[in-house]
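#onboarding

Welcome to the new folks! Below is a worked example of what a typical request in this channel looks like: someone posts a single protein sequence, and someone else replies with the predicted structure as tokens. Don't worry about understanding the tokens yet, we'll cover that in week two.

Example request:
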Amino acid sequence: MADPATYRPAPGSIPEAPGVYRFSDQHGRVIYVGKAKSLRQRLNSYFADLAGLHPRTRQMVTTAARVEWTVVATEVEALQLEYNWIKEFDPRFNVRYRDDKTYPVLAVTMNEEFPRLHVYRGPRRKGVRYFGPFAHAWAIRETLDLLLRVFPARTCSAGVFKRHGQIQRPCLLGYIDKCSAPCVGRVDADEHRDIVEDFCDFLSGRTDHLVRQLERKMAEASEDLEFERAARLRDDIGALRRAMERQAVVLGDGTDADVVAFAEDELEAAVQVFHVRGGRVRGQRGWVIDKVEPTDTAELVERFLTQFYGEQAALAGSADDAQQPVPKEILVPELPAELTTIVDWLSRLRGSRVQVRVPHRGDKRALAETVARNAAEAFTQHKLRRAGDLTARSAALQEIQDALGLDSAPLRIECVDVSHVQGSNVVASLVVFEDGLARKSDYRRFEVRGGAEGGDVAAIAEVVRRRFRRHLSENETGTESGTDQTEGNAEPAPGEATGIASPDATLTRPGIDPTTGRPRRFAYPPNLLVVDGGQPQVEAAADVLADLGVTDVAVCGLAKRLEEVWLPAEPDPVIMSRTSEGLYLLQRLRDEAHRFAITYHRQRRSKSMVSSELDAVPGLGPARRAALLKHFGSLRKLKAADADAIAALPGFGPRIAAAVLAALHGPDRPDSPDQAEQPGAAPADQTDAGVPAS
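Example response:
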């Protein structure tokens, strides 16, 4: 536990101007970001008597080893800089208005010739329309099932669509009239796009017009004595009305609004958001956040508005026709102190004026109370689950500490596993758990250079050596620099000032990239290194750490046969109870490392199998092979291509195209010239660093 007095800024050195500040730990990792109207007043509050601080604040200031700040000109700039730093550094002590799960949306691929309707999770893409979010994927599927009888649009994948086009026979949905079967030519591209656009209009809220149009067609069919068609239209109208009932009207004036509510205690808060579009609830989401310092509802609202809508704007910015990231109106339980600043910032994101207010009467007040009840219920359920999770994780770390005789609980654990098939395509994985939870952004994967030489023991030793040699090189002390500097990507504008306070402020911080200000990939050492294997693997890893002079990392191995835990220089394993939370955590860590290694090994094996037919092509090096596979997507598609398509790629020509086709089809292919180009470039050198998880 660090003493905040060791890095407290000198009296009078903190400016009284507004700005943004950040605390960093001993490894240079940013752990908290905040903004203040007066930097001096706010930062001095963190260095008060520890006994009087909020529990989370006390933990934060004792974890930190450095504080720095940037002075800005306006409050809007402070708001933007705080949001950028939180997004860039992901500080562990900041309130994170981020879903603990990805909410599904209904995606419509308008950028395809025959647009497709499907459930989607992930980043937004250009040319795709999105509707939602929905609380569950089954809610989307139920809605689609109701609407496909009215809007029989394509829902199948590209492979299924192509296959049924080749066999000239529609799928089951085509036979039961829930798809217009464009794959077999029942409708052309323009007719299918009209169906999809009507579907999008219905989900966008223009429902009454579609219902009236169907009622008019039903009446005309009845007058023409086309009773079967009239009955079908009657059923379509019923399906539309059932779908509309799922999205009940909550605001009679057709308002577009987000309604936000909180349920909180001293340490945590639950937030619920209802997305109302056209007066109907189109989506709902909710999650729970941790409080780092005493935070009232107004401050929670302020941070929600900046972080949540900043993320929504980033998502919408990557899609052509996504919905507006910020609604016209946001209903909140309390107004934030910096209301004018936040409204101006939100209006910039939307491109038009945004209103933030507290509802006091009528339908909006009733809806806000409903959202508040949902937040309270979610908070109650979270507390019941969270109590068990925290207890289990704390017990697991404590049991590992006791069983292995560690000085402290292993808050950061790394695990190494090796994967290969009879010594071919040898790869390794390194996974990271922090506080008993997976930290996937720190996962790494390695290609083992020695291959099968020495077996798993040698592979483990190589990976550990490369990981910790890189760690040592990234934490060497840098060159001297002045005390006034700006680190990170947020450089101060003219007239701004940046302050830094820490015991080693005259030196470049170890583990931090001086060009970007961000921590290097291998800057943080684990408290415990776990290897998948028994005593030989553990001894190999321990010998490597001893050779490198790393003495502050404990090592153990988990053998699969009896799940025994091996320690270096110990003849007998440590046997943990089969019901132990500590053993369960080690097993999850080992299984995750195994899964990650297997996944990477399969990728490598698939690439090697695909490229094997091209290895003997003269003039086709690794770079050109990769370019071919990236352009055509698969070896099958490459075989179906002609010489002109291959020769048109950058760096190719008629001769090398002929050589490729000759290798795939033999030299008798009619469109293959006789000669090939000169050999291509050599493969790039491999570094010690592992490949980050993608």
